C-alpha cells in the first residue's frame, strides 16, 4: 500500500463512515434572552488567536495532500473556498511531501490559490524541528498544526507503535519555528490532563479535535482484516473536551470534531472556543455538491452565525464566552465527576 493510496482510502472511508453525531452538543443549550439590545449588522465575525487574525470564526481543518492529482484537486478547491469565504485553511499532513518532493505541489496549490489567506501547515508529533521548518516554508504557513493521533496509528495496520517523546518534540518545535504551533487531536478529544501538559510548553493554541464526527478508528478498521472495534467508541466528545481544555488551560482553545452546522459552531464558541474547525462535513459538501454551492453554503452559515449571535446579544466572538449555557445529561455528569463545575456555565453573567 503506497502513501498515496492510503490518502485516497482515507477520503473514501471518511465519506462512507460519515459523521457519528455523538459530540455532546445535543446536551448543551443556550438560554434565550428576549431583550438583546443589538442590530445584526453590529455583529462582527473577526477572529483572533494570538497574532493570527481572519474574518471568519471557521477554519477548514486538515485533510489532504500527498496523494497525487486527486488530492491536489481537492486542495485547490478547498483553497478557493477559503479565499472566497474568509475561512482559514489547514492542509493535510505534509510528511508525504517531505519524504517525496514530487508531492509538494499538492500542498503548494493551497497557497497558490489563496496567497493572502490564513493557511496552516500540518505534521504529526513524530516530526523533527527541521521537518517543521520545511513544512512551514513549503506553503508559507501562518501557523503549524501538530496532530496527535495515537488511536488512528494503533488501528492503522501499518501505523506507528512507538509514541515516546512527543511532548518533548512539540516543545522543541514550538521554541524553534517562526510561526505559532497549534496542537490538535484527530477525533478522540483532548483531556484536561493533556491540555495541562501542553500548556506548560510554548505552543500557541489547542484544537480539541473531539469525538463524535469523523471517526478514524472506524476508517482504519475498514482497512484491517481483524477489526479493533473497541476503539470505535473511544474518545472524549467534543463538547466535553472543550470544557476540559477551557477550564484547565490558559491557551486559546479551538473546537473541532463533528461540527456540522451554524448552531454547533456557536455552541462551540459559547463553550470557550476562539475558532471552530470543520473537516468531514466540508469535504462531503464539496465533493457532492461542488465548489459554487459550498461557497454559498458557507456564506449562509456566516449569516446564520450573525443571527444566532444577535439572538444572544453578542457583538464579538469573545462575547459568546460569557453567555449562560445549560449543560445536561451525559455531558453534565462527565464534567461533574471530573470536578469541572458544569453548573458554572448556567450562571455566567453577560451584560448585553
Ligand atoms: C483528516 N484529518 C487529518 N488531521 C490531521 O491533522 N492531518 C491529516 O492529514 C488529516 N487527514 C484527514 C483526512 C480526511 C479525509 C479527513 C476527513 C480528516 C482529521 C481532521 O482534521 C479532523 O481532526 C477530524 O476529521 C475530525 O473533524 P470532523 O471531520 O469531524 O470535522
Structural summary, described in words:
Helix content is 43%, strand content 14%. Helix 5 (129-139) links the parallel strand 6 and strand 7. The strands form 3 sheets. Strands 4-5-6-7-8-9-10-11 form an 8-stranded parallel β-barrel, surrounded by 6 helices. The relative contact order is 0.17. The model has no long low-confidence stretch (mean pLDDT 97). The radius of gyration is 19 Å and the shape is globular. The chain is built from 13 helices and 12 strands. It is an alpha/beta fold. The chain has a single domain (3-29, 52-291), classed as TIM Barrel (Alpha-Beta Barrel), CATH 3.20.20. The protein starts with a helix and ends in a 15-residue tail after the last helix. The longest helix has 32 residues, at 280-311. Bound molecules: ligand FNR. Ligand FNR binds next to helix 1, strand 7 and helix 12.
Tags for this model:
TIM Barrel; binds ligand FNR; alpha/beta; globular; 12 strands; 14% strand; 352 residues; two-stranded antiparallel ribbon
Per CATH, which architecture?
Alpha-Beta Barrel
Low-confidence stretches are none
Strand order of the largest sheet: 4-5-6-7-8-9-10-11
Please report the total strand number as a whole number.
12
What integer is the average pLDDT?
A: 97
Tell me the major beta sheet: 8 strands, parallel, barrel
CATH top-level class: Alpha Beta
Overall domain count: 1
